[in-house]
């Protein structure tokens, strides 16, 4: 037995997914896939993520779409084309040999009951003999009104639940269930990808929007995202207090750390200084807007006068005629006084 075990190849090591970095090419591919097949419907697009992983850090650098259909009435019925998936993987290996399957994406925008089954199917295509990292599930939200990061990543975890089979039997039965756990997701790009994204955004940029408007819009989007996170924390704590969810010590400890890091905003000096600074800034903005409006009106009047003078019989000639009439009236009045 000892000799046989020594000749067996070593099993590949396994690492847990720590974070997921999604590259711009994946976002563009997922958005294009959704607009080609699912736009205007309640369907969602599903595809495979390709990339690399190192010590739990996953880089999703590429992706391709997969034919996918699911029954809207029965959530257990869905179709995923295995032959198409195998053929596409074989062609990608010929072009990008270092990229392998690291998970799959969906346009969601939420987790559905079929996602665990899709995850188990996609995990079969991970090449054997490599350093295995958990395949991830990334929801790419393609809705245009989303102001935060459009990606949300998950990994599959196993939870052991004990249940009693019946009233007479006092022995609890342990049941292993799989569920999704959140993984931090990032948006990253290599130098060549950054150049391409800049060229794309150059055509989308609106030069009529001022820098102040962009700054205000960024502040509003940041505050709206903060509001969403606070509401999510509140809903979680409410569900835990009512017994609808199990308490997680790590989540509660993170919430406590966030609350402890908040500054004390009830100090009178801080409130007064913020009000004074805001009033000064708004006064400058108001005065500059008034000056800008007066200058624009002045330029408009000058342009109208110049145009009328060139066209003839305009405002300039009417002013001259009015001055001549006033001069004649004054001369007649002076003559009457002399008489």
UniProtKB/TrEMBL annotation:
<dbReference type="Pfam" id="PF13012">
    <property type="entry name" value="MitMem_reg"/>
</dbReference>
<dbReference type="InterPro" id="IPR033858">
    <property type="entry name" value="MPN_RPN7_8"/>
</dbReference>
<keyword id="KW-0647">Proteasome</keyword>
<dbReference type="GO" id="GO:0000502">
    <property type="term" value="C:proteasome complex"/>
</dbReference>
<comment type="similarity">
    <text>Belongs to the peptidase M67A family.</text>
</comment>
<feature type="domain" description="MPN">
    <location>
        <begin position="20"/>
        <end position="160"/>
    </location>
</feature>
<dbReference type="Pfam" id="PF01398">
    <property type="entry name" value="JAB"/>
</dbReference>
<dbReference type="InterPro" id="IPR037518">
    <property type="entry name" value="MPN"/>
</dbReference>
<protein>
    <recommendedName>
        <fullName>MPN domain-containing protein</fullName>
    </recommendedName>
</protein>
<dbReference type="InterPro" id="IPR024969">
    <property type="entry name" value="EIF3F/CSN6-like_C"/>
</dbReference>
<feature type="region of interest" description="Disordered">
    <location>
        <begin position="311"/>
        <end position="339"/>
    </location>
</feature>
<dbReference type="InterPro" id="IPR000555">
    <property type="entry name" value="JAMM/MPN+_dom"/>
</dbReference>
<feature type="compositionally biased region" description="Basic and acidic residues">
    <location>
        <begin position="317"/>
        <end position="339"/>
    </location>
</feature>
């Amino acid at each position: 037995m000892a000799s046989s075990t020594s000749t067996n190849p070593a099993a590949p090591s396994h690492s847990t997914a720590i974070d997921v970095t999604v590259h711009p090419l994946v976002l563009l591919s997922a958005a294009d896939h959704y607009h080609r097949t699912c736009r205007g419907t309640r369907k969602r697009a599903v595809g495979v993520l390709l990339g690399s992983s190192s010590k739990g850090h996953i880089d999703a650098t590429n992706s391709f779409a997969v034919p996918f259909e699911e029954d809207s009435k029965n959530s257990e019925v869905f179709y995923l084309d295995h032959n198409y998936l195998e053929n596409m993987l074989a062609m990608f290996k010929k072009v990008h040999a270092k990229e392998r399957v690291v998970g799959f994406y969906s346009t969601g925008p939420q987790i559905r009951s079929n996602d665990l089954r899709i995850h188990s199917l996609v995990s079969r295509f991970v090449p054997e003999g490599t350093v295995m990292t958990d395949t991830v599930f990334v929801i790419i939200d393609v809705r245009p009104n989303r102001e935060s990061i459009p990606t949300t990543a998950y990994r599959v975890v196993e939870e052991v639940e004990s249940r009693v089979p019946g009233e007479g039997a006092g022995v609890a039965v342990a049941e292993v269930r799989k569920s999704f756990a959140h993984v931090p997701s990032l948006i990253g790009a290599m130098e060549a990808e950054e150049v391409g994204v800049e060229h794309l955004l150059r055509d989308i940029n609106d030069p009529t929007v001022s820098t102040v408007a962009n700054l205000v819009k960024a502040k509003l989007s940041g505050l709206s995202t903060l509001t969403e996170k606070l509401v999510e924390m509140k809903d979680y704590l409410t569900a835990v207090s009512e017994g609808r969810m199990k308490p997680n010590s790590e989540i509660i400890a993170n919430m406590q750390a966030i609350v402890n890091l908040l500054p004390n905003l009830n100090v009178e000096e801080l409130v007064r200084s913020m009000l004074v600074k805001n009033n000064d800034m708004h006064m400058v903005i108001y005065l500059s807007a008034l000056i800008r409006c007066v200058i624009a009106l002045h330029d408009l009047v000058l342009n109208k006068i110049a145009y009328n003078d060139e066209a003839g019989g305009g405002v300039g000639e009417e002013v001259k005629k009015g001055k001549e009439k006033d001069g004649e009236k004054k001369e007649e009045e002076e003559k009457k006084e002399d008489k």
